Amino acid sequence: MAAKSAINRSTISLVRNQAWIGSSWTNASGGKTFPVYDPGTGQKIVAVSDTGADDARRAIAEAYKAQKMWGTSLGWVSNGINYLLCLW
Question: Using DSSP, how many helices (H) and how many strands (E) does the chain show?
C-alpha cells in the first residue's frame, strides 16, 4: 500500500518557494531553484530558491541592520515580541 502524503491543498498554500531576506520574500540571486520531495510518496512538493554565497552575504547584512535596530528598541517592546514568538 502506498504511503499517504501529508501534503494537500490546505497545507501546500503554507509552502513558500523563496528565501526570507531583509523583511521580504526573494528569489535566489542566480535565479536557480531545486526540488523538494515528499519523502513518503516521492512526489515533488515545490521548487525552492537555491540561494548561494551572494544571498548569504545579503542576508547577513540585513540581519546586522535589523539587530542594530532591535537593540535600540524599548525593552518592553522586544520582551513582548519575544513572548509572542514563544507562544507561537
Answer: 3, 4
Domain ranges of the chain: 9-87
Residue that has been written with the C-alpha cell 502506498 in this structure: 2
Q: What is the pTM of this model?
A: 0.61
- Grid coordinates representing 11 are 497545507
- Quick count: other Cβ atoms within 10 Å of Cβ 30? 13
17 CB-side CA count, 13 A: 14
| Per-residue pLDDT at 55 | 95
Q: Is the pLDDT reported for residue 69 higher than 60?
A: yes
Amino acid at 21: I
Q: Which of 80, 3, 9 is nearest to 43 (CA)?
A: 3
